[in-house]
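Exercise 7. Predict the joint structure of the components listed below.
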Amino acid sequence: MEILEEKKNKNRAYKPILDGIPDWPVYQLSKNRKEFLDEVTRKSIERIRKVRPSRKQLIDELEATVYREQNRMKRNRWRVDPKDEPKFWSGIKNELVILSSKRSEEGGNLPAGQAGKEEEILERIVHRYANEIAGKFIPNKYRLTREILKFFFARLLNGARVKKFGAFFRSKYTLRDKIQIVGKVKMLRRLAKQGTVVMVPTHFSNLDSILIGWIIHSLGLPAFIYGAGLNLFNIKIFAYFMNSLGAYKVDRRKKNVPYLETLKMYSNVALQKGAHSLFFPGGTRSRSGMLEKQLKLGLLSTAVEAQRNLYLENPQENVRKIFVVPVTLNYHFVLEAPDLIEDYLQVKGQNRYFPEEDNYGSFQLIKFMFKFFTKGSNISVSIGPGLDVMGNYVDDNGNSLDATGRIVNTRDYFLTNAKVIEDEQREHEYTRMLSQKIVKEYHRINRVFASHLIAFIAFEMWQKKHPKLDLFGFLRLPEEDLEIDYNELKETFKRLRKEIYKLGEEGIVYHATHLKGDADLVINRGIDNVGIFHLKRPLLKNKKGNIITQDLNVLYYYHNRLAGYDLEKLI
Amino acid sequence: MTSKNLSDKPIGVIGAGNFGSVIANIIARNRKVLLYARDEKVVHRILDKRENRGHRMNKHVIPTNDMAFLASQCDVIFPIVPSEHFRKMMKKLSPYLHPYHILIHGTKGLDIKLPKGESIETVAQLNRNQVKTMSEVICEESVVVRVGCLAGPNLSRELALRQPGATVVASHFNEVIQTGKKLLRNDRFQVYENNDLVGVELAGVIKNIIAIASGALSGMGYGENAKGLLVSRGAVEMVHLGKALGGSTSAFLGVAGIGDLVTTCNSPMSRNFTVGYRLAKGEQLSAILDDMEGIAEGVNTIRIVKKCADYYKVRAMITETLYKVLFENLTVQKAVQYLMRYPLNVDINFL
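Solution:
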């Protein structure tokens, strides 16, 4: 099997932009953890009180929260959930019962003697949430983890690739040879010095979280605070890494108002304090294999709000700007692909909801890592250009630019009658605009791999041969019956590759350098690499040299990477 | 929080045409207005005689020829210029605009970008990448984000006479809607809210097609049955076209959709109606357009919308037949025959 080598890799080591860990904003946060969490708690409560102004509304909200939490514990409890949870919530429930029974005794009016009781309960809940969400960044642990990762990766790489005795201890290859970082790296480093960076990557695999941590480090950036799904913390090895990389936890099971507001406030306050942040705005891994089209607006809105607050609180001065940096991660292989696409098809096909399951424990992950490092299959990371919170491009000095290149003052977006004001509806709209811009950028900085293109072509060619079947009917066809003539595929490939080049010139999508060159070679690379480690391979060549598949669903998954560019019209 | 008390800055209106002058007068009842006119003679005339296009201009309307001045003085601007000049006007205005500006336009037409040397008829296909509503033009050409539009049954002459009427202010931003409402509303003018900006814009645009058809029926001397048929089938066609172009159904059922449709279809005053009427009387399109004061937006709209309907595979019987009447020498008589014979009997299929 051929290993995909990129053209001579320009990736190099970057010097850290801040010298010592004590200078890092994330360290400052963790050092003053208590004060920070108190601030988050206080502000979240203010916020919740604003949304639920009357006593009755607040008590109703608290009752709903308790109900949902108890439901969650009954139905979907995770290993990572704290042990004292049931006790905490049943305690809250009892207090609420007492409160409302007193209320009915006094003919529906809230008891005067109990004034403030519900506020006190709210505070306890929010404080608990804030502590649950908060990450613990410990410099020594961070350093240690970093070194372990580096050492571990380097040994794997060198041991596997250089077949000589003693190679195990050499350092000929580093992770940088496996993972290409392309795009606006210099700009990102500059922006991280002048302002606060919010990195928003696409999300395809659970590995993304660790990968991106390594990328941030290798670009010489200080650690980011990251929003990672709490489900990841169920896997012990992940939990260890994530904790030491400065992650905070996002629990998608909790949809109650106090939790959501606390989570948003956590991100909001951290951004205002200048902590570079990262979260996956798609909210969860892309089930279909498509680039995210719809983003979750909750955490994204905190970038807009934090920026407005900075302007609001510093009317005259220059304030630290917040820069949004889209990133796409490009893989030949996604470990979870078969399960993800299964989920997607089930949900889409029958409108049923399937709870999230992670079928991959620590052992499977280590096995995958070993395969990944020994066998090839590179990953490439495209860093997008910096945007301001309105989705305008910024220049190297962080100035926002309009379409004609004129400098725009970001503060102006928050003005009404020459004053910065808070307008929730307006900012909601701004967040939506920002999310659309990010989606557009994803598609633009996406890098087409040979494997994506081959998967796309093969799937579309097969589907075109069965015009009467809808997607689900088509996917039910027996795999053994499907075969594509190699020469036919090659013709189509050449045509589409040309189109990809054209789109590249128009700035609509990038492509990897390995896509160029002899068509046979590139096609074979593509076939060899697409979903390389799956038990049932999405694409193979048979004895006649024609193309066959062992798993149409998974092929569909890899095909989806190129959905949305109107390429199917050329098949 | 939307600003309850507008600052005392003047309000800008760009375009001293018929509708622009009326809107300037309506706003001038509440606030000082700067009215931009391209033609310096118009500025002088308004200054000297307080008159424009047959409208007596309110004393709070100050005409100007200086866009930079207008943009620096006004936070809220109403651009009301014909769609074919709209982008050019925005390019001129854009350097003076900031993100805090609010723009509420009152233009019922589409903007179209074609490759050099191509026309609507010769270009291979037309879709929403090339066809833009006015609010989209504003966002493309400037940094302004707080954009809205005015649409509804707003015949300039009736408004000028202070007869009761209504309009819709549509925007994604509540503050824009509230601002528009505050500025326009008075005891004779009701203002409704809608947040489907593109839907409301499209409603105002597409109804012009039906208006031409209505004029044609009148010109043939047909009565109210025919008109009832046209209005109801026209509304269905509007919904289908509007959905294909990115609006929601509900926008077409409101004041900007049905409301405006009924008004324009019954109004011999409207230019679009007149085009249809004279066509039915046997005149040639070119002759009609030549001696018409102002622009009948509907004619261009038919060309654009027909091509878009082809691309999005929407069946738009009235638009397509009318296109043949306007540009392919089909007589109105034949057109009516064709439509009446067409075997399509589903009443409503979009709810």
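Discussion. Residues 197-219 of chain B form the longest helix (23 residues).
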